[in-house]
Amino acid sequence: MHEVLRGIGVSPGAVAGPVVRLAPPPPDPPEGGVVEDPGGEAARAEAALADVAAFLRARGAAAGGAAADVLDAQAMMAEDIELHERVAALVAGGRTAARAVHEGLLGYAEVLRGLGGYLAERVADLDDIRSRAVALLTGGRMPGVPVLDQPSVLVARDLAPADTATLCPDRVLGFVTELGGPTSHTAILAKQLGIPAVVGCPAAAGLREGAHVVVDGTAGEITVDPPRDVLDRVAARSASRAAVPDSTGPGRTADGAPVALLVNVGAVADAQAAAAVPSEGVGLFRTEVLYLGRGSAPSVQEQVEAYRAVFDAFAGRKVVIRTLDAGADKPLPFVGHAEEANPALGVRGLRLARRRPELLADQLTAIAQAASGCGADVWVMAPMVSTPAEAEQFADQARSLGLATVGAMVEVPAAAMRAAQLLERCDFASIGTNDLAQYAFAADRTESALADLLDVWQPALLDLVAAVADGGRRTGRPVGVCGEAAGDPLLALVLAGLGVTSLSMAPACLPAVRHALATHTVDECRGMAKAAREADDAAAARESVRRLASPRLLDVL
Q1: Is 384 within a domain?
Q2: What CATH number is given to the structural domain containing 400?
Q3: Per-residue confidence at 119, pLDDT binned at 50, 70, 90?
Q4: Where in the sequence is the domain holding 162, given as residue range(s)?
Q5: Strands, DSSP E only, in 226-299?
Q6: Which residues pair with 197 in a beta bridge?
Q7: What CATH number is associated with residue 15?
Q8: How many whole angstroms separate alpha carbon 201 and alpha carbon 183?
Q9: Do 241 and 43 touch, CB atoms closer than 8 A?
Q10: Are residues 311 and 408 in the same domain?
């Protein structure tokens, strides 16, 4: 008898294959022991962390795209000065190199977990660094993806970005993890690779090696010992997906209503690779990468050069650049963040300008200089805008420097509820569904046990998106979505039906979303949006839309 397990689908598509489990991490190094040469042990620990950093960078360079940015950020964590000082102090206290690295990284992880938000999401990255460094120091087996002798479904408690980035779709058909959520690095990389994936599935712990399963990354389901009719449907979906011709051109519904299709980018190299993908531009240019791992803020000139490289790559297209999204939950060493009881509700995003106004002033100056005379249509927006007054102040400052199109991120329920008043003060809004879900449901986006509350199909979250879209209609302003929700083909139809005018996503998601829009009219999208909002929960919302979707779309999802 077959069994269906449920998690969170983070990368669409369906595949069937045997289970292969991820190689486990090495055992914890033993406590105690005699350290005869503390200096030598400290040097061994230092070398192991350096080797792990070099390994991560090499793997990122080989993978390219967003993976290079993700793994470079992880390598910076292995090189963190405070981590190295912590490990050296533990060695001086009598720990072996392996035990000091183990305890040091566990302590570091607890600090980040307590901060919440973006940094708490990086705990899995630290666990990966710890496992690799301990394996090097103890001569143990390096954790990670085993050599596969046949195409398989990878199952793990969690999957490190370093392993996800280099998965070969010819061998790893899809993957399932017990932990994780829709905004993790692993989920983002799965979309880039086009590998069906389900995360946040605790029941995956019981999947045995060699068991035959179907992974449906669209529905977020794993079918164990699938019957023949399920396997036949998977094969038919795969054949239909392969037969869909590559499409280009602006996003349009079947009856010609425009829905702009854009890409999310981070570092310059990431943007230059994304520029080759047929899109209408960039809907979210994250600027945090330029600030991470530094002892001081980048100079105006350094920022100008980085921004101009991205603008030049998208000459003739729109580029929406977001100002620095940092704060107490993404601390930067040169900012001097104050102690906060709840960093996720603290001074982050635009609010950072209250303490360090020169950071925002320098960044807007650099954006304006880079935009001057470039071939791109540059729009600028601020993160974590909560009130119309904040939107107005930001817009006035940006316009005074010559930036013509200024907007606000909607990530806070207060902003969504007063969207019309906010949009009267600026030119556009862009909805960040990940943070909006976190704040709407009071659910930490790093807590796997609450992943169902962070599901972007939650009807209450769709109500907030609808409120922003209604504010856009009332003021004649465009409203986009740049969270991971935009890359879900079914949900893209709902968003279009709610009145969202642009969708920005990982480049690999564009073809399926373009196809979804092209096979449905505006009225059909509106009917799907209505059905989703009337549902009781996320699962019911998703299912109600599937029932209304065109078979031409369902055949390829």
Answers
A1: yes
A2: 3.20.20.60
A3: low
A4: 3-23+144-243
A5: 260-265, 281-286
A6: 11, 175
A7: 3.50.30.10
A8: 15
A9: no
A10: yes
Please give the structure tokens belonging to residue 38.
């503390």
Q: How far apart are CA 129 and CA 167, in angstroms?
A: 18
Measured distance between the N- and C-terminal CA atoms of the chain, rounded to whole angstroms: 25
pLDDT, tens digit, for every residue of 226-251? 999 999 988 887 777 666 666 678 99
**3-state SS track over 406-446:** EEEEECCHHHHHCHHHHHCCCCEEEECHHHHHHHHHCCCCC
Same domain, 109 and 230: no
> Residues with Cβ < 8 Å from 204, sequence gap 6 or more?
5, 7, 155, 176, 177, 178, 222
Residues designated catalytic: 185, 482
Radius of gyration of the chain (CA): 23
pTM: 0.76
Mean pLDDT (the chain, rounded): 87
- Find the Cα–Cα–Cα–Cα dihedral 237, 241, 244, 247, rounded to 10°: 140
Question: Cα-flanking dihedrals φ and ψ of residue 112, to 5°?
Answer: -65, -40
Which neighbouring-strand residues pair with 479?
Answer: 429
Task: Give the C-alpha distances (Å, rounded to integers) separating 256 from 122, 374, 519, 521, 523.
Answer: 42, 31, 11, 8, 12
**CATH, residue 85:** 1.10.274.10
Q: Are 380 and 406 in contact (CB under 8 A)?
A: yes
**Mean pLDDT of the region 452-477:** 94
CA 190 – CA 187 distance, rounded (Å): 5
> What is the distance between the alpha carbons of residues 556 and 239, in angstroms, rounded to a whole number?
8
* 152 shares a domain with 132: no
Name the band, by pLDDT with cuts 50, 70 and 90, for residue 329: very low
Between CA 352 and CA 361 the distance in angstroms is: 12
**What backbone phi and psi angles, to 5 degrees, belong to 146?**
-70, 165
CA-CA distance, 75 to 50, in Å (whole number)? 9
